[in-house]
Amino acid sequence: MALLVTDALTKDYGRFRALDGLNLRIAPGEVVGLLGPNGSGKSTALRMILGFMRPTSGTATVAGFDCWNQSVEVRKRVAYLPGELRLYETMTGRQLVAFLGQLRGERPGTEVDLLAKRLDIDVDKPLVQMSSGMKRKIALLAVLVPKVPLIILDEPTNTLDPTMRDELLEQLLIAKREGKAVLFSSHVLQEVEAVCDRVVILRKGVLVHEQCMTDLRDGRHVSATILGDVPTTGPDGYPLALRDRKLNLDYRGPIPVLLEWLAKQSLANLKIEPLSLAPIYHKYHGNGA
Length: 289
Description:
Layout (H helix, E strand, L loop, with lengths): L3 E10 L2 E11 L4 E5 L6 H8 L7 E6 L2 E2 L4 H6 L1 E4 L11 H11 L7 H9 L12 H13 L5 E5 L7 H16 L3 E5 L3 H7 L2 E6 L2 E7 H5 L1 E8 L19 E7 L2 H9 L3 E8 L3 H8 L4
Parallel strand pairs: 3-8, 3-9, 6-7, 7-8
Antiparallel strand pairs: 1-2, 1-4, 4-5, 9-10, 11-12, 11-13
């Protein structure tokens, strides 16, 4: 059963439609990535799910509660990290996490120190004395500690160094194993590929593509230069159209079949890589989109 449901969710600003009929389902224990450039409707969708904005039409619900008409009930069940932080900088990190926990009726315990150690932050230091990266980590701490079924993150790795990005992605996988649903937007395709079960691509407010990441991870991209006879069919039996003896093949099937086919070819510069989100994303947001 879906935890988060949007049904034809739409937002108009006069004649401009920021989001157009978004239909989305996210189940407990599922990580979903929301992709698209600025202006594609990502932030608009997140704000309506959080009850910050009223839809022009359509609905969004979390755990059966309407995100606009029952927004308080929805926020009890959601931990949210905005793209642009506004924190109470006179507080220490520990005080901020405790304050936000009290608003939910929770009293964070030892998990604060355990997670702070993983994120390498001093939670007893005032936020006003912290760098933007440290503040981002405190905000992540405040999002990851609550016992809520849904986590929503808007560009969560902004200002984080590579080590902390990896740690955050690991924490999202832990949240998934705990049965939490995660929805996050990002411009970094490698992050999305690493943790997501599904990816949703928005373009000008419209959902233009939904990708199951298992299908992508099971595939391989093969590139090589053909030295001998040019094959007319690939390992899956489909016709091949090569240009200048350059092989670029997206293959989904048994790996032994692929390797057997490649062994029969005379090749140079052979590369076999996992399929990437990049070609799919650039199909909708590249120069030729």
